[in-house]
Specification:
about 30% helix; Oxidized Rhodanese, domain 1; alpha/beta; six-stranded mixed β-sheet
């Protein structure tokens, strides 16, 4: 028996390759599927099933493409309805893969069709669960993502409570837990950095699995502090439900080199967004005017999904040498399939053609501190998430979360100068690029972000827990 977790850090997502006696199954595959096919071929195995734990919202699964290429059956849990052929399994139904068995445990709550798959080894022992977004390490799935459902998030939270208590917590403590996500995913709020655990460990450490927890307490705690889902979640879930263009076609039309003339013409005629995915240190020095920065070296796909509101937006890429295929692939993972090509030769070719470039002033934290002391700083924008800001922030800084920049922009003045920082320097450059593209040009990026600011002697405000007395 082979169980391999194939983890993708950018999405904090775990897909699974399972094999026994010449037969294989894939659970929650990524959009690009060739790696699964190659792995099975190398092991002289055939892919028999593709199991989906639910309609994913945070990425586009590769199940449709993989089924077309291999003839494998796509399996969803009870109640799943799609625009393509699937096998809708019954609760407790079993599927044989070689000498092992995958048993369907219908665990609604995250979504109505959410399903956990229990792996039973050749000796009949419960070995592991593939829990999707029902159970994470340290958390459980958010219950507010059901597609076109009349149920409230409270209704789904109650279902999740029952699913966990009646289907998951009744399993032996030594059963291994393989979740669909880890820390960094927006599908939960308290996910562990670990990606493999056990039922016993989760009973001890996961707040949502406390034995003495009432249903009302569970609903309150699970829903408390959940931020609004990113705007692309519903769109990805619908693609997973209805189907999508095959990945090979998306890559073929998107990974196309364009000289500066063709690049500029396409940007104008197609109303394309120029997306610069180079490191932020390169973007601030020189970039195409009005281009947006979201670097491949950070949480690229989730930030694209959160900030580019039109999933069908035509996109032109500025990429590091040799990274065009990676950029198109990672865009497709969150449903952005309309890439038109990339700038051949990059910014050097753009400059050589005599075209204009723009830049962002970026200064070290120490220089920023000196300007503050000299009263040369008017407004500081802290673009970190709400929890980060509340925990600790620069005294006097204005919270301006990157997540909501598109709706909050009218709070700023184009006549003022803003000093922008995040935690480490990635998100602040994203924010600066968006603001510049909208006509806010008086911006200064603080390189190294809050981490560097804390090394100066500027005053910091830390969160103080309210007294319980």
């Amino acid at each position: 028996m082979i169980i391999e977790q194939i983890y993708t850090g950018c999405l904090a997502q775990g897909a699974y390759y399972i094999e026994s006696n010449g037969e294989a199954a894939i659970i929650d595959p990524l959009r690009e599927t060739q790696a699964y096919i190659d792995k099975a071929k190398a092991n002289k195995a055939s892919i028999k099933y593709i199991f989906e734990t639910h309609f994913h919202a945070d990425f586009v699964s590769g199940h449709v493409d993989l089924a077309k290429k291999t003839g494998a059956t796509i399996v969803y849990g009870p109640g799943a309805e799609t625009a393509y052929d699937i096998y809708s399994a019954k609760d407790n139904e079993e599927f044989k893969i070689g000498d092992i068995t995958l048993k369907v445990l219908h665990t609604p709550g995250h979504t109505l069709e959410s399903t956990t798959y229990l792996l039973i080894d050749k000796n009949g022992k419960n070995h592991a669960i593939f829990s999707g977004d029902t159970l994470f390490l340290g958390d459980v799935g958010r219950p507010d993502l059901a597609i076109k459902s009349d149920l409230t998030k409270e209704d789904l939270a109650e279902m999740l409570y029952d699913s966990l208590r009646h289907k998951i917590m009744t399993l032996a403590d030594d059963v291994i837990v393989y979740p669909a996500h880890g820390a960094g995913s927006a599908c939960g709020k308290n996910l562990s950095k670990e990606t493999v655990g056990t039922i016993g460990d989760q009973k001890k450490t996961n707040y949502a699995l406390r034995e003495d927890m009432t249903k009302a307490e569970f609903v309150k705690e699970v829903l408390e502090g959940i931020p609004p889902p990113p705007q692309y979640f519903a769109k990805n879930a619908m693609m997973n439900k209805m189907g999508y263009e095959d990945f090979d076609s998306v890559l073929k039309t998107g990974d196309v080199p364009l000289d500066p003339d063709d690049f500029e013409a396409m940007a104008n005629h197609e109303s394309a967004l120029v997306l610069d995915v180079r490191p932020q240190s390169e973007f601030v020095k020189a970039h195409i005017p009005n281009s947006i920065f979201i670097g491949l070296n950070g949480q690229f796909a989730p930030w694209v999904g959160a900030l580019i509101t039109d999933i069908k937006q035509p996109i032109l890429l500025v990429v590091p040498e040799g990274k065009s295929e990676e950029a198109v692939t990672r865009l497709s993972r969150v449903g952005y399939d309309n890439t038109l090509g990339y700038l051949k030769g990059g910014i050097a070719a753009w400059k050589a053609s005599g075209r204009e470039v723009d830049s962002v002033e970026s200064i070290p934290a120490q220089t920023f501190a000196e300007r503050v002391k000299n009263n040369a700083v008017e407004t500081v924008l802290d673009v970190r998430k709400d929890g980060e800001y509340k925990s600790t922030h620069l005294e006097g800084a204005k919270h301006f979360a990157l997540d909501f920049i598109n709706s909050q922009m009218d709070q700023l003045s184009k006549d003022k100068t803003y000093y922008v920082h995040c935690a480490g320097g990635y998100r602040s450059v994203i924010a600066a690029s968006i603001l510049k593209a909208r006509g806010y040009h008086n911006l200064v990026d603080i390189a190294g972000g809050f981490g560097a600011i804390k090394q100066t002697d500027l005053p910091i405000t830390d969160y103080v827990c309210p007294s319980t007395l």
